[in-house]
Design goal:
By secondary structure, the chain is an alpha+beta fold. Helix content is 42%, strand content 15%.
Length: 183
């Protein structure tokens, strides 16, 4: 499938998902890597992370298989908070203990996307074929870029337990959403 055709399909998917008022729609996986030039083979599916309060209830057919990883807003903020305040090894262990979906560890995927290229520093390892290494932080924000970037910044500023104590004392321990999250 050509890149232009994939972009058209992604536009349709994004428009369809806007009916569920997402905070953010994040493309990841092989399609994100392919569109950014990181892979030469056309992807076999589309992987999207959808953050919001309304889980999509209808599944439309597109010209390519489509996996949707839905996270409630509070759930993804909780993952970001874990990454920010727990020791890195403890944060990794907590992500591993969260629920699995279709053989993937959902929280691991969300954590890698939030942490960016530094995700291996937390102990996140290759989850698939070891012979074909992948960058799990590669993604594209299809909707809600300011909100997603603010959440990434929050998660990436590792403060540890002492930082949590200080932040709680000052009332700074909560994620503050940008004033215009979806512009």
């Amino acid at each position: 499938m050509e890149r232009s055709e994939l972009k058209t399909i992604l536009g349709r998917i994004t428009q369809d998902l806007l009916h569920y008022y997402p905070k953010a729609l994040i493309l990841f996986g092989s399609t994100a890597r392919y569109l950014q030039g990181g892979e030469t083979e056309a992807p076999e599916d589309i992987d999207l992370l959808h953050v919001g309060t309304m889980a999509p209830t209808d599944r439309r057919e597109y010209d390519i298989p489509f996996d949707l990883f839905f996270f409630e807003t509070r759930e993804i903020i909780s993952i970001a908070r874990t990454l920010r305040y727990l020791p890195k090894a403890a944060a990794r262990a907590k992500m591993f203990m969260k629920d699995n979906w279709k053989g993937y560890v959902r929280a691991d995927i969300a954590a890698c996307l939030m942490l960016g290229p530094k995700y291996p520093d937390y102990g996140f390892l290759q989850m698939e074929d070891e012979e074909k290494p992948r960058d799990y932080s590669t993604h594209a924000v299809l909707y809600g870029e300011p909100w997603w970037r603010a959440l990434q910044e929050y998660a990436q500023e590792h403060r540890g337990a002492l930082g949590l104590g200080i932040d709680k004392t000052l009332g700074l321990d909560r994620f503050v959403e940008p004033s215009s999250p979806n512009v």
